[in-house]
UniProtKB/TrEMBL annotation:
It comes from the Bacteria. Keywords: Membrane, Transmembrane, Transmembrane helix. It comes from Altererythrobacter xiamenensis. This is Diguanylate cyclase/phosphodiesterase with PAS/PAC sensor(S). Residues 23-274 form the EAL domain.
């Protein structure tokens, strides 16, 4: 901790110690996870809000650890970010996702999450170029997803990196919109292709709540006038899907239309629809 001289820190906290130990064990395993082939990607469909056809899949990383079993990304992604292990992991994700997307119909895109640590690496644009080249995927089919947190650190470097990726022809989505430190200033400077409205504005009681509805409506209006599309996240029910469509969101993602699935199952969705 920062204030070592504070004098309160010698109080021994067994539960904190246990947490720190668990974290240390997890970190040790995470260091070997790439070499041990313990990661895989799942893919969640993103559908057109009006006709419900699949327009994209979001790649979501999964860790099947031989030491810890299944570890949720909510747990290991922050750890990977703190330790910078997210840089090689993210590189692997990008390559793997582009390779998989190459198997899908040409109009279907792939969304890939990128952490600030990864984006701020000087080599990031090169990694995108290499992932596209290795897979043969057209740049227009790749949309990376970043959260507002990238602007908290090195805003100008983040912006430059995103502009380079856009110059390649790729899209950039602003993820979890409305949950972070929302300064709208950067929306003026960066042409995001998509704004992803966070699930807290969409789910359950939220869509029956006048304030949430007003916010979604305002975000959609703002996105439209800035020539950006909107995706609503976390749609779990038919009612939510209808409301979201009425509010004018372009795309929908959520358990109602499909849970994250293996690459094999994602591919089957297209084979089925081609047979129809
Ligand atoms: P995210 O980018 O906001 O991804 C959406 C999360 O919401 C996923 O959780 C997804 O399974 C979940 N979700 C989708 N639809 C619904 C729904 O209808 N209801 C509910 N309750 N949840 C839904 P997941 O896969 O556990 O990922 C959690 C977070 O971990 C992601 O949030 C993202 O921030 C991070 N993450 C996942 N994969 C990667 C990756 O490859 N790289 C990086 N940097 N971060 C990743
Ligand atoms: Ca995301
Ligand atoms: Ca999100
Ligand atoms: Ca998130």
């Amino acid at each position: 901790s920062k204030d070592e001289g504070g004098g309160e820190h010698f109080v021994y906290e067994p539960s904190l110690h246990a947490l720190a130990e668990e974290r240390r064990q997890l970190e040790l395993s995470l260091r070997d996870a790439l070499n041990n082939d313990e990661f895989l990607l799942h893919y969640q469909p993103v559908v057109d809000a009006n006709d419900h056809t699949i327009v994209s899949f979001e790649a979501l990383v999964r860790w099947q650890s031989k030491d810890h079993g299944f570890v949720s990304p909510a747990k290991f992604i922050p750890l990977a970010e703190d330790t910078r292990l997210i840089v090689p992991i993210g590189k692997w994700v990008l390559r793997q996702a582009c390779m998989e997307a190459r198997k899908w119909p040409e109009h279907v895109k792939i969304n890939v999450n990128v952490s600030p640590e990864q984006l701020l690496e000087p080599d990031f644009t090169n990694e995108v170029v290499e992932a596209l080249a290795a897979s043969g995927l057209r740049p227009e089919r790749l949309e990376i997803e970043v959260t507002e947190s990238i602007f908290l650190r090195d805003a100008s470097i983040a912006r430059a990196a995103l502009e380079q990726v856009m110059a390649l022809g790729c899209g950039v989505a602003l993820d979890d919109f409305g949950t972070g430190y929302s300064s709208l200033g950067y929306l003026r400077k960066l042409r995001f292709s998509t704004i992803k409205v966070d699930k807290t504005f969409v789910q359950g009681a939220a869509v029956r709540n006048a304030e949430s509805l007003a916010i979604v409506r305002a975000v959609v209006a703002m996105a439209q006038s800035l020539d950006m599309t909107t995706t609503a996240e976390g749609v779990e029910t038919e009612e939510e899907a209808q409301l979201i469509r009425q509010l004018g969101c372009d795309k929908i993602q959520g358990f109602y239309f499909g849970r994250p699935m293996t690459g094999e199952d994602a591919l089957k969705l297209f084979v089925q629809s081609m047979r129809r």
